[in-house]
Design a protein that fits this description.
Layout (H helix, E strand, L loop, with lengths): L6 H5 L3 E3 L2 E4 L4 E3 L10 E3 L13 E4 L1 H11 L4 E4 L6 E5 L2 E9 L7 E7 L2 E5 L24 E5 L12 H17 L3 E5 L5 H10 L5 E3 L1 H12 L8 E2 L9 E4 L4 H7 L4 E6 L8 H5 L3 E3 L7 H11 L3 E5 L3 H10 L4 E3 L16
Parallel strand pairs: 3-4, 5-6, 10-11, 11-18, 12-15, 12-16, 13-14, 13-15, 16-17, 18-19
Antiparallel strand pairs: 1-2, 2-3, 7-8, 8-9, 9-10
Helix pairs in contact: 2-5
Length: 350
């Protein structure tokens, strides 16, 4: 049986607020989806739309700040932190130290290690332990034996164990080649930040010509600016689409269908493809289990590696995963926040 929480850990009070987490004792919000107007600090773990709002000030990595400036077109002033470089912050409730650690989810994604007078807390945000070609490799080594682990558990059921990505890319390439051979156009639906860039790298290995939606192209330029080299691709042009693979965000699918004069065959790249209902619910021709989130085995691995005294689960199958952890002897509970999905069964920007 793992140690119960101490008085210090219990003093790190957490609240579900604005679709994210609030720590009142620090005047700190973690990934709120609404603009915070109260005095305090806001941490944005990465630039997916379900983790951000038009905050006037926020804490983030340089890459996340660049993506947010492009996506939200704001004049916000971010407090940009480098990975592994502690920074002290002061609020009306006192001071705390923040160290950002690579989360492995998308370029610039970060975990936040908080060091306070009442203990050490790691907030993961969305993360992935396996190396990702379009993100910094996850590194949580500085957070071992933290007092509290607040972790996302989107895929917190044993059925969500992802196959090797090389196999998935091969399946996607076969779908694209077969579609092109049938004189149709393969359209891959994926989040514009992270998943689309991963698809580009995967398709390029098979020599497939790629075209991307203009929102993806804009983010690609930031990837290049940050030193990540991506394969050549054209910007979407319906008159030049034949014989190419089109990658676009789900929200653009209807408009793409209206603009294109060729037959389209749609496929989705998402961890939810492991759910047999995914393809039917989305109304696509195919679904492939490609995800930038931790799968079930990675969630368990993080807990076992960190050995935290208390675990708080968020998102997806949070209650189920917390129950699994308790059965294994861990002190785990769920914080009720709105569910956040990698690629929802209803199309969204991410």
């Amino acid at each position: 049986m793992h140690d119960p929480p101490t008085t210090k850990q219990q003093a790190l009070n957490l609240e579900a607020q604005f679709g994210g987490v609030r720590i009142p004792g620090l005047s700190l919000w973690l990934d709120p989806q609404r603009k915070v107007t109260e005095p305090g600090h806001v941490f944005v773990s990465h630039a997916h739309s379900d983790h951000v709002a038009r905050h006037k000030h926020f804490i983030a990595t340089t890459a996340t700040a660049l993506f947010l400036k492009s996506r939200l077109r704001t004049t916000a002033v971010p407090e940009q932190l480098d990975y592994f470089q502690p920074r002290s912050f002061t609020s009306g409730a006192g001071s705390f130290l923040v160290t950002l650690l690579p989360a492995g989810h998308v370029l610039g994604s970060a975990m936040a290690l908080l060091e306070t007078d009442v203990g050490r807390l790691l907030y993961t945000g969305d993360f992935k332990l396996k190396p990702c070609p379009v993100a910094e490799n996850c590194d949580f080594s500085r957070a071992k034996q933290c007092d509290v682990l607040v972790m996302e558990t989107t895929y917190g059921l044993p059925q969500y164990v992802f196959p090797p990505e090389d196999e998935v890319h091969s399946q996607i390439a076969s779908f694209c080649k077969e579609t092109i051979a049938a004189n149709a156009t393969p359209v891959l639906l994926a989040s514009s930040l992270g998943k689309s860039q991963k698809l580009m790298l995967g398709l390029a290995r098979f020599g497939l010509p790629i075209m991307v939606h203009n929102t993806i192209h804009t983010l690609n330029e930031i990837y290049q600016q940050m030193g990540f080299h991506l394969p050549h691709c054209e910007v979407f042009d319906p008159d030049r689409l034949r014989g190419k693979v089109l990658i676009c965000p789900p929200t653009a699918a209807r408009r793409i269908t209206e603009l294109c004069h060729t037959e389209l065959r749609l496929a989705v790249a998402s961890g939810w493809a492991l759910d047999a209902r995914c393809q039917f619910k989305l109304g696509v021709h195919a679904a492939f289990p490609l995800s930038n989130h931790a799968d079930y085995n990675e969630l368990v691995r993080l807990v076992e590696s960190l050995q935290p005294r208390m675990i708080v689960t968020l998102h997806g199958f949070a209650a189920e995963f917390a129950r699994t952890l308790r059965a294994a002897g861990w002190n785990a509970q769920t914080l009720s926040v709105p569910e956040q999905l990698d690629l929802p069964l209803r199309p969204s920007p991410d």
